[in-house]
Design a protein that fits this description.
single chain; alpha+beta; 2 helices
Length: 119
């Protein structure tokens, strides 16, 4: 589980080094992504019909972030596909400030949580 003030909580299941599934706030489905690891960054490519409401970007292109940033945003983790995201579904529709029953809010910095969620 990752957290940043703009997106809120995002749950990512890495099925392999080349495939992940994203449970994004507000979504009714999990999004598949191709993944590639480069020397100092991780890259994701979501389906062309997907849309990021924060950045206003559509899918279909590689989007990369530095490994240190991805690692820094990670607030909780577990082994396996605990939410069955690889089925293309999500257990329920979450708001951006809802973690999960399993992870709660994880280890989110309180200042960052207030910045993104106002609480």
């Amino acid at each position: 589980m990752l957290f940043d003030p703009q997106h809120g909580f995002q749950i990512v299941y890495f099925a392999s080094e080349e495939q992940s599934w994203l449970w994004y706030p507000g979504n009714r489905i999990s999004l598949p992504a191709s993944v590639r690891q480069e020397a100092d960054r991780i890259c994701f490519k979501y389906p062309a019909e997907s849309f990021n409401p924060v950045t206003k970007a559509v899918g279909g292109n590689w989007n990369c972030i530095p490994n240190f940033l991805h690692d820094g945003l990670t607030v909780a983790a577990a082994e396996g596909d605990v939410f069955n995201l690889s089925a293309g579904t999500v257990p329920y529709r979450r708001s951006k400030c809802d973690g999960t029953g399993r992870f709660g809010r994880g280890t989110v910095d309180p200042g960052l949580y207030r910045q993104g969620c106002g609480v």
